[in-house]
Every structure is written in structure tokens, then in C-alpha cells.
Amino acid sequence: NKMGGGMHALLDRNVEKMLSEPWGAASAGIHYNKQVLGSLCDQFSRLEPQARRGALQGTLFMRQGQRVGLTAEVRSLVDLASGDKDQWVNLIARALGGLTERFDLRQLQQDVPAVADALASIRGAIQAEGTPDTYRPLEVYNHNITTPPTTPSREV
Question: Where is the NELF-A N-terminal domain (predicted)?
Fold first, then answer.
């Protein structure tokens, strides 16, 4: 249990920094246990929004064997985050909590403005740029090869 205790201390000390890094959630998630999740729940409201998001995302990187005994702890974390003032924390928590229920994107767009905004900007970008070149049919690229020259060139 010495290793688990060490990780607990490390997470307590560096939790915010670690969980705010792009892959921090993945690194932290594989070390989640009752102590670590309990500690995250205790500290949750004090963490920066990016770290709160990371704490939730970390649960996605838990191994199957880890997950078995930690359902209640994960649920506590998700419940804590569900009413969060940060829209993305709220969204991630709802998505995690909703894994058992049907995921309703339309309802989510109404409840979480950031989702509606993100979807609108994605749709806008697609409309503005049209179809990217990578999706052009192959014939367009092969046109010069397959079409015979209109006037035969005779070299003398």
C-alpha cells in the first residue's frame, strides 16, 4: 500500500498541475483508487476549472479492474461536478453520468450553452469552407492521366 499512499500524496500536491496538462487526466486516471478519488472529491471545489475537467476525464482512463470497486466514488465525483459553474465541467459530468441513460444532444444544447455554441461554430466552419479537397472524387485527380491528348503531338 506504500505505492498507493505515495500516489495519494503526489496527487494531493500536484493534482492541479497534473490534471491541467493535456494528458494529465490519462496519467492520473490509471492511479485512481478510493483515497485518490476521495481526495479529489474533498478538493474539487478548490480546483481550477481545467483541473476539475481533468479530474472527471481521468475516470475515463481507469482500467476495468480498477473501476469495479470504485463505482460509488466515481458517482460522487460526477454528482459533485454536475452543477458546476464551469459549463464544460458540467457537460463532462453529465456525459459521464448519462452513460447509463440515453444521451440527449438536443437537451444538452438547451441546458449547456457552450455545447450549442461549439456545434454552431463547427457547422459554420463546414459551410464556410465547403467540402475539403481531400474529399474530391478520384476522377478529378486522374483526369489528366485518363483523358487522351486532344491533338497528337508528333515529334520529328
Answer: 20-139
Whether the Cβ atoms of residue 51 and residue 15 lie closer than 8 Å to each other: yes
Task: Give me the mean pLDDT over the 52-60 stretch.
Answer: 91
Among candidate residues 56, 73, 99, the one where a domain is terminated: 99
Q: Give me the number of domains the chain comprises.
A: 2
Q: Give yes or no for a contact between 80 and 44, defined as CB atoms under 8 angstroms apart.
A: yes
**What percent of the chain shows pLDDT beyond 90?**
19
The residue range of the domain holding 72 is 1-99
Nearest to 114 by CA among 84, 71, 73: 84
Question: What is the rounded distance in angstroms from the CA atom of residue 86 to the CA atom of residue 9?
Answer: 27
- 27 with 7, same domain? yes
